[in-house]
Write a structure and sequence with these properties.
Number of strands of chain A: 9
Number of strands of chain C: 12
Strand order of the largest sheet of chain A: 5-6-7-3-8-9
Radius of gyration of chain C: 19 Å
Structural class of chain C: alpha/beta
Shape of chain A: globular
Strand content of chain A: 15-25%
Order of helices and strands of chain C: HEHEHEEEHHEEEEEEEH
Chains: A alpha/beta, B alpha/beta, C alpha/beta
Number of helices of chain C: 6
Oligomer: heterotrimer
Number of domains of chain A: 2
Largest interface: A-C, 24 and 20 residues
Shape of chain C: globular
CATH architecture of the largest domain in chain C: 3-Layer(aba) Sandwich
CATH topology of the largest domain in chain C: Rossmann fold
Number of domains of chain C: 2
Distance between the termini of chain C: 22 Å
CATH architecture of the largest domain in chain A: 3-Layer(aba) Sandwich
CATH class of the largest domain in chain A: Alpha Beta
Order of helices and strands of chain A: EHEEHEHEHHHHEHEHEEHH
Structural class of chain A: alpha/beta
Largest sheet of chain C: 7 strands, mixed
Helix content of chain C: 25-40%
Strand order of the largest sheet of chain C: 1-9-8-5-4-2-3
CATH class of the largest domain in chain C: Alpha Beta
Largest sheet of chain A: 6 strands, mixed
Number of helices of chain A: 11
CATH topology of the largest domain in chain A: Rossmann fold
Strand content of chain C: 15-25%
Chain lengths: 278, 228, 285
Amino acid sequence: MLLEIQNLSKVYGVSCGECLDLTGVADDSCICPVCDSVVAMNRVSLSLDGKEVLGIVGESGSGKSTLLQLIYQDQCPDNGRIFYNGFCDRHGVPLNIFEASVSECSVLRNKEMSMIYQNPRMGLNYLFSAGGNIAEKIIGAGERSYEVVRNRVIELMGRLELPTSRVDNYPDTFSGGQQQRIQIAKALSSSPKLLLLDEPTTGLDLSVQAKLLDLIKELQKEMGFAMIIVSHDLGVINHLTDVTMVMKHGCLVEYGLTDQILEDPQQPYTQLLVSSIL
Amino acid sequence: MKLDVRQIEKQFVLHNRGGVRVTGFSDISFNVARGELLALVGPSGAGKSSVLKAIYRTYLVNGGSILFHRQDGTVVDLAVCTESSVLELRQREIGFVTQFLKVLPRISALQAVAAPLLELGEEEDAARRRAAELLAFLNIREELFDISPLTFSGGEQQRVNIARGVIAPKELLLLDEPTASLDEESSSRVLKLLGNLKKQNIAMIGIFHDQRKVDQVADHCYRILREA
Amino acid sequence: MNESVFAFMDEDAKKEIRRTLLKAVAIPGYTVPFASREMPVARGWGTGGLQITLSLLLKRDCIKVIDQGCDGSVNAVNIRDFIASVSGVKQTFSTREATIIQTRHRIPEHKLAEGQILVFQVPYPEVLTTVEPDTEKQKQMHADSDYSKLWVLLYEDTSQFGDSRISNRYPVEVEDHYVMDPSPIPKYDIPRLNNSPALLLFGAGREKRIYAIPPYTKVEPLKFSDRPFKVETFAGKRCGRCGADNVFLDEVRQGTTSLYFCSDTEYCDSILTEQGDVTGNTESE
C-alpha cells in the first residue's frame, strides 16, 4: 500500500461539533445548518496501491482539490490520518503525516510526491527560467553537482517534448501547453512515487490536451509512479485512471474500478453524473 | 478448474427513473477448465454480455460467487475481492476481448496490436513483427498497418481487436462475439486462432450466435434464457 | 556628557543586546530579532554594529573601526571618535592591537586572533529576500534548511554566465544548516569567515537583526560540487604604495589609466613600516 487515508475531515469555520453529522449527500449540503461552517472533507477513507491511477470526480466544491491539498500537506485536516509507505518515526512505527515535523514532511514533498496544479502559475516560479524551475526540485532533493542538475533538466525537457534550446527562457515566454509541460517536467524531476494532478489539462485546447494526456500516461507506464487525478471531465478519467472515487459535499459517494463506475454506477449521484456525459 | 461461477445474479437499479429494477441475469452457474472453451449462447438481451462483464468486474453482481483459480494456486472471488486485486488480475491473468474496438485515434493498428507485448517487456522490433504476422494471418492488408484502426470497416476493426486480445494471451480470456460481423474466411481464421489458444492451455468463455461455430470450437455450451 | 553612563547605552539595553548575542552565538547563522535603539547616527549608517560594539565594550578594550578597509574615512573616524568619547577606551588603527573591530564591508588583511571580536555592519540581514519576499515563508525555509531557491539563482547564473554574478553579500552556509548574508564584503573575504579564530558578530540596526559566527565554525559559500568558488583576482597588479600583490586592491581611475591601492589602509601602512619607508599619512594616537 502506497497511501492510506483514514477518516479525513476538514471544516472551514468554527465547527459546532456536529457539522460532520448534519451535512453530506443525504442532507444535500456541505454547509452546517447549526453553525454555517463549510465541510470540505467529511470522513473520507481511501487507500492507493503502488502503481495505481486514481481518479477523483465530482462537481465544483465537492472537495476534490481539498483532498489533493491535504495529501500534499498544503492544508491541515481537522481530523484523520494519512500514512505513506515507508514514512516512519525513528522507531520504525508508521507516522501520520500530520503528526510529523515540517522537516520530516519535506522529504515527502520534495522527493516522494509531486503536485501538478491546474494553473501553471501555482506550480512554477515565473522569476526563474524554465530550466531553473525544473532544477529547483532536483536541487531540493539534494543534488549538488551543476553538471548532473543541468543534464537532468535538459533530459527532462526533451522527454516532455519541450525545445531544449529554450532551457534558459522564462516560463511566460512559453505557450500555455508548454508551461504545463514545464510544470510536469519539474514534478517528475525528483522521480516521485506519487504524482498528484489537479485538473491538469483543463483550459488547454483539445489537441494539446490529448497529446498531454497521452504523454502523462506514457510516462506513468515508463516510470511506474502512482497518480491521483482530479478532474470533472469523465473522458479524462476514463482515459487515464484504473480506479475512481466520486465525491459530493465533501463525502465519498462511490469508489470502484473506473469501468465499473462508468458502466454500472451504483449510487443515484453517480448515475446522474454518468448520464450527463455528452 | 480455472473459473467456477456459482449462482450469480444481477439487477440494475435505475435511481433516476424512480428506482426501477431491471434484471440483468439470475441464477447463472457454470465452470470452465484450463484449455477449454465454454460457449455462452442464448437470445439477444438474455444477459450474455452482462455475465462476461460481471466476471471482469465491470458489473457488480448482487449475489453469488465467481471463483477464479490463480496461477499461484490460490482462489479469489472476483465478485467481492478488492479493486487492487482485480487490477492485478486484469494485468496478468484475465483478458477481455470486447465486441467493439476501443483504442485512441492517435494509435496505428500495428501499435495497438503490439502494445500488450510491449507491456510485458517484449522488445519493440520483435513485438511489431509478431503483431504484423498476426494481422496478416487475420487477412488485414499490410497497407493498413500504420493507419488508425478506427478508420477501418467493422469487420477489420473486429479482427484488430481480436489480434490485440490474443497476442499475449492471458490465462482466462473473455470473448464477446469474436466472430460477429466477420465473413466465412475471416471467421474460420479466428476460430483457428482460438483452437491454438486451447492448446496453450488458455481457458476461454465466448459468446456465439452461430451454432455451427459453437460445434466447431467449443468444449461445452451454456445456454442463458431471457428472463420471463 | 558621558560621565553618567558608560558607553552611551543604559544597562538594560545592553543586557538585551548581550542576551540576543548569546542566542545568536548559540545558533550560528540564525538571525535573531532585537530591539534596535535610537543611536545618535541615522539608521543605515552602522547603528547595528554600533549597538553591538557599545554593549560589549569594557574599559580595557581597544577599538578599531574601518569603512571598506579604511581607518581614515569620515564614517570610520566619526564612529570611532564617538565610541571613544562615550567610553574612554583606547582607539587604534592596528588590527593586531584591537580587541574589537567594527567594520563596514571588509575583513582586515592581517589574520585575526583568538579573543578578538569582529563586528559587521549589515544593511540587509535576510539572505532569502531576493528569492522569497514573504517573511513567514522565509522563516519556514530557514527552519527546513530549504535553500533550493538560492541554488536556482546560482544554477541560472552558471548556465548563462558561467559563474555566479554575485560580487558581494555572497550567501554562506553556516555549520551545514543556516544560510546567511555575510554583509556586503567582497567574495575575496568569504574564505576568511571559515574556521575564524575570532568571534564574528553581525548587526543590522535598521532591520533589527543580530546574528553570529562563533570562533572555529564551518562557513562555506553556496557552490556546486563541480564548480570552484572564484574570488576576485588581481593578477599582475600590485599596490601603488606598498607594492603588496596578495591583498584586496581598490582601483583608482586617473584619466585613462588605473592605479591600485590596498583596500586595507592599516595593512598597507604596516608593510611600509616594515620596509622603513613610511610615506603615507599615518596617524597614531
